[in-house]
Structure formats: C-alpha cells, structure tokens
C-alpha cells in the first residue's frame, strides 16, 4: 500500500472512491479546485496502481483578522476492502503534516456525522481531535455533525 500526494489524474479515482462509500458527494469541479489550489494537502492510498483511499483537504479561506491560518479536511474515504489497515490514519497524518509545515496551520478542523462511530474513534481516540461544537442538521439528510479540531502547533 502506497500513500502519495494526489495528482490531477487521480481525481476521477478519488471521486469514484467517494461515490462508493459516502453519502456526501462532490462535483469534479470541486475536486479540481482543491487539487489545483492546495495540491500539497490531498493524498491518495493506492494498491497496485488502483486508488483505494484518499483525503481531500484545504486551507480555510476568508479568515477574520484575528483568526489563525488553519486547515480543513473536506473528505476522507477508504474502500471497504482496504479498511482496518491504518490507511485513513496515514492519510490524515500526511495531510496534517503538510498543513503545519507548508501553510503554518495552527489547527485542522473537520465535520463528522454523529452516527459515524468508526470515524469518531479514529479522529478522537487515535488522532486526538476534540469536539468543538455540534452543528444541527449539517448534512443534507438532516443529521447533525460534530465539528472537531486538532491543534497542529506541536507539529511545527
């Protein structure tokens, strides 16, 4: 299993992985925007040349004057056939390190469905994220999201 920076030609494979696994889907234009604007922050996991996981990440835009630069995980997914191999953790760490070193991000944020126990375990228990807030009806189907955050200051 190889983790490497995502390239423009990986975007269709990333989208296919998303469509297969997640209810929140994005247009190719959205993937392209991330890939071209923050090319250092998105990564793919590949197995024999096939994309089996990805992380799509960005730096937050439109910051208030007193707001520190910070990253955001837009989407992360690993195919069911390749779960429980540590790929999501490796993808997260790669992206977090890039946010901290390249963009001097002070923290990374993400949203996760309240019902997604596996993701909550990864983010909270394995990676050390904390819940900052609950965003009511965040998802299109009305489910609430935990807004989570991890400080990156120790990584710099």
Helices, strands, pairings?
Layout: E1 2-5, H1 11-21, H2 28-37, E2 43-47, E3 50-59, E4 70-78, H3 87-103, E5 107-113, H4 117-126, E6 130-135, E7 145-151
Parallel strand pairs: 4-5
Antiparallel strand pairs: 1-2, 2-3, 3-4, 5-7, 6-7
Morphology: globular
Q: Strands across the major sheet, in which order? A: 1-2-3-4-5-7-6
Order of helices and strands: EHHEEEHEHEE
Mean pLDDT: 89
- Indicate the proportion of strand residues: 25-35%
Structural class designation: alpha+beta
Helix content: 25-40%
Largest sheet: 7 strands, mixed
- Measured between the Cα atoms of the first and last residue, the distance is 27 Å
Tally the helices: 4
Indicate the radius of gyration in whole angstroms. Answer: 15 Å
Give structural notes.
By secondary structure, the protein is α+β, with helices and mostly antiparallel strands. The protein is 31% helix and 31% strand. The chain is built from 4 helices and 7 strands, in the order E-H-H-E-E-E-H-E-H-E-E. Strands 1-2-3-4-5-7-6 form a 7-stranded mixed sheet, with helices on both faces. The longest helix is centred in the middle third of the chain and has 17 residues. The relative contact order is 0.15.
Summarize the structure.
The protein is 31% helix and 31% strand.
Name a few traits of the molecule.
7 strands, alpha+beta, 7-stranded mixed β-sheet, globular, 156 residues, 31% helix, 31% strand
């Amino acid at each position: 299993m190889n983790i490497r920076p995502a390239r423009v030609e990986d975007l269709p494979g990333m989208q296919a992985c998303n469509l297969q696994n997640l209810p929140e889907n994005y247009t190719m234009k959205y993937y392209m925007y991330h890939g071209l604007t923050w090319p250092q922050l998105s990564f793919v996991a590949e197995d024999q040349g096939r994309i089996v996981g990805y992380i799509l990440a960005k730096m937050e835009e439109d910051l208030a004057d007193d707001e520190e630069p910070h990253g955001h995980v837009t989407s992360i997914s690993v195919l069911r056939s390749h779960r429980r191999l540590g790929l999501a953790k490796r993808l997260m760490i790669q992206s977090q390190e890039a946010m901290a070193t390249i963009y001097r991000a002070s923290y990374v944020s993400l949203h996760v469905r309240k019902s997604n126990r596996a993701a909550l375990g990864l983010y909270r228990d394995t990676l050390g994220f904390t819940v900052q807030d609950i965003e009511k009806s965040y998802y299109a189907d009305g489910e609430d999201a935990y807004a989570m955050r991890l400080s990156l200051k120790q990584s710099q």
